[in-house]
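Repro:
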Amino acid sequence: MKLQPDKSDAQSLTAHGPGWVAINNEKVEGSVVVGSRGERFEWNCSRFDQLGPEHFAQLASLGAELVIFGSGSRIRFPQPAWLQPLMARRTGVETMDTPAACRTYNILAGEGRHVIAALLVEPPER
């Protein structure tokens, strides 16, 4: 029996660096939401302190089984009240720094899971 790796049609996060991530080798400068079923849009925030409940309500409307929140260059947790719309839909939320969120998204998307990565991409420090 010959074993072949499964091929996923999901978008993948192919690289990251200070102030950017790459989606299918396309460099994106700024915060972004990426999903395993083709979801992709700009996430209107560039710093953690700009986040609010409306950002997470937007994620809840996507109907994913899991949201991976990449909190920037270091791990920072959203306020529990912001997560209420996700909890009401029984959507899981995992928080990690953005590089770890990229890696985790790729693994789960490759497994065929309906996963969303909400990535805070902060401008590089000068």
